[in-house]
Specification:
This protein is of the alpha+beta class. It folds into three domains: 1-37, no CATH class; 43-109, no CATH class; 121-183, Beta-lactamase Inhibitory Protein, Chain:B, domain 1. 16% of the residues lie in helices and 25% in strands. It contains four helices and ten strands; from the N terminus they run ββββαβαβααββββ. It has helices at residues 59-67, 77-81, 121-128, 136-143, and strands at residues 2-6, 32-36, 39-42, 48-49, 70-73, 98-99, 148-150, 153-157, 163-169, 175-183. The strands form four sheets. It has a four-stranded antiparallel beta sheet, with no helix packed on it. A two-stranded antiparallel sheet has the order 1-2. It starts with a strand and ends with a strand.
Length: 184
């Protein structure tokens, strides 16, 4: 037996419905597609993947994964993950599932923070090594609060203004990389 699901939001569609009860999308031959019993269509914004997966597949597959609803079995771990809030306040584990729009979907966490013995801001950032995929909490625990925060950017500047670094963060406060780094 096949069930119909809305291709816009993934909700089940009643057999006689003209519109999706969840999102209002018109139902028709082009607006619904049968999926096997026990499967649910999950929109990309709710989908979770293993850390680093997006770096291992083709750009076309990334595009398809990030723009289309994906059928997941109702009993799968992947579907269960869509029902709980994502926690990015700690580094992910190898078996964790992360949202598609999290930095960790493309780049895995660099691991334990190295020992930091530098006194200068520049030295501390240098000793941290790879900043991309570190949490904001990890970075702040080493260098302190940023001097300026604007949206998903945070800038640290030393007391004398001779060194400044701006980091870009995703919506989960995971570092996407260095926006700029200046030494005077």
């Amino acid at each position: 037996m096949h069930m119909s699901y809305c291709t816009a939001c993934g909700a089940k569609i009643a057999e006689s419905a003209k519109f999706c009860a969840s999102c209002g999308t018109a139902v028709g031959a082009k607006d619904e597609e049968p999926i096997p019993e026990g499967y649910v269509l999950v929109p990309p914004e709710k989908l979770r993947v293993k850390p680093g997966l997006l770096s291992m597949i083709s750009e076309l597959d990334v595009l398809l994964l990030t723009t289309q609803n994906v059928p997941l079995h109702e009993d799968s771990r992947e579907y269960a993950a869509t029902k709980v809030p994502f926690r990015a306040d700690r580094p992910h584990g190898p078996e964790d599932l992360v949202p598609l729009d999290c930095v960790w979907a493309r780049t895995t966490h660099p691991g334990r923070m190295p020992s930091i013995d530098a006194f200068t801001l520049r030295g501390k950032f240098s000793q941290m090594g790879q900043l991309a995929a570190r949490t904001r909490i990890e970075i702040v625990s080493v260098v302190g609060a940023p001097t300026v925060t604007a949206g998903n950017m945070a800038t640290w500047t030393n007391t004398f203004g001779s060194y400044s670094i701006t980091l870009l963060f995703d919506d989960y406060n995971v570092c996407a990389g260095v926006g700029s780094e200046l030494s005077f």
